[in-house]
Putative oxidoreductase YdhV
Amino acid sequence: MIKLIKIDLTDKKVSIEDTTELQRDFLGGLGVNTKLLVELTPPGADPLGPDNNLIFGAGTFVGTLLPTAARTELTAKSPLSNRFGTSNSGGLWGAALKFAGYSHIVLTGKSPTPVYITIDNDQIKIEDATHLWGLNTCATMDWIRRERGKDYQVASIGPAGEKLVRFASVQNNYHGAWGRTGMGAVMGSKNLKAIAVRGNGKVKVADRRSFARIMTEAFKKVINHESFGYTHRYGSMVVADPYNKIGALPGYNFTRGYFEDWVDTRGRGVFERKYKEKDLACFSCPVACAHWTKVKNGIYKGYGNKGLEVSFVLEFGAKLGIKEIAEILKCAEVCNLYGMDVVSASGVIAFAIEANQNGLLGNLSMEVPSVWGDFLGILKLLENIGQRKGIGDLLAEGIKRASENIPGSKQFAMHIKGVEIPVRDPRAKWDVWTLGYLTNTRGGDSLRTRSPVDNLYGKERNYFEEETAVSEDTINKLDMPNFLKKEIFGEPPFKVDIPKMARYSEDLITIINSTGLCIRPPVHRALGTDFYARALTAVTGHPYTEQDVMKIAAIIWDLQHQFNVLAGEKLEDFAFPDRFYEESLTIQSGTKAQLPRDIINEVVHRYFKARKWDYAEEDLYL
């Protein structure tokens, strides 16, 4: 039996439910989270009210020894976008939950006083947390492990979650996070400080022989994939230099796509030579894309942190203009301690700096830096946001709400559907990834749409299709249904149909997030729909076909979309900020033209057609 823990924090009631059929029909992880949220949370519910459900879901493969089987999805209605909200994290927490005998936790209601939850195998307790309220996330974890045991894995919020900062994160042990869409604020609204989990069991698989063969196959494919070496070596930092080269950095709030000194100050070589100490890995992961980073010189000498995630560098280093990696690490540390999403935090600060430069902040101007790269000013503003002090109280509402309260500032608010846009400028490179900013069911984000045949250096600018960067033989070997290959790639010389690939990649990543594997390139590119069908069959005992898993993934995505429509989403929300349509982007070779609004709208409509979404009949998007 696959079990779910349901906790009503208002009444302090704990119940256990059998979710075997739900797991079978929705794959697990994100899929089950989606179905539960749609069933349990009214689309019109206040995201920070007791009717919102907060759902942790460890993927079906988590706790097994499939490569990267460590990912857990955290889902609720987002207080940032007022729509479907979800975030994903790895580490050891999800495996501990599975070893304790559970796949999901559903939290509803609101405790009258601060509490935390302990799950020790079959012992589930709701404990007083008044002494933990106000502590940062690391201090919270220290206390719980000191008092309860060092082998507990802890999900916790910091002061930002307690104060309902709308982009507050839930931290995963010391250095991981469920970062995007404000899940920490939802947790804080329930007066829930932490969930500590310890499990000593095992995850059972239905067909051990088949599973052993599939596991061996998966490891070989992942380790032998061409992306494995550089992903292991640099982690996500592998893209830092290429983004600068093609002018895709989000520099100075998406006004500058490159920096002349980027490679020498914030590039991956600097990270490797001067800061990287050792490799780190999540549960059951051969890629080990995380690294322990240590500052060896300067005033922060000796300071260490997990990193260096490229989001830290692109957000604080490019978007805000901080040059020193040590200072970038300190900004990331403040976000971790307070429990705030790095992308949204840097996004609202970039917005505030540009508004200040244009004289829009009045008496509050002294609380916001007026120049890019002001490390101390940025660090102080991060703390004020986490504490909701001064202008930090307004910025804690997120970029959309902040811009609605500062006259004349909306042109500087870089968000889609209320969610701050991360890492890459679509004017520099239009592809499946950047279309995904618009089609993503959780708003302006880059991690739910990604082609398994990315071509970062494609020179042709075509908004409907892009050049492939792989050979015909590679396409033939790609683990993708043959009929979709014909639809997406056509006939040689191959091109990628961007709207159709967006749909396929979203469905593939939905499968990955439901089963609990990772979307890093060695997994995302090496393993496809046939593999997931066979692996699910071996683990669960239920016979899945490739068509089954694709159909279920599409249903999951449609449920998320339907939730958003009922929550008020309109066709006009599928759009970039005006800056991308009206301003050119400064890059090394000169400028990149702005996006053509009418053509982008047509690409979106072709995506709707690929999804078989008919808005004319619904009369909701007109």
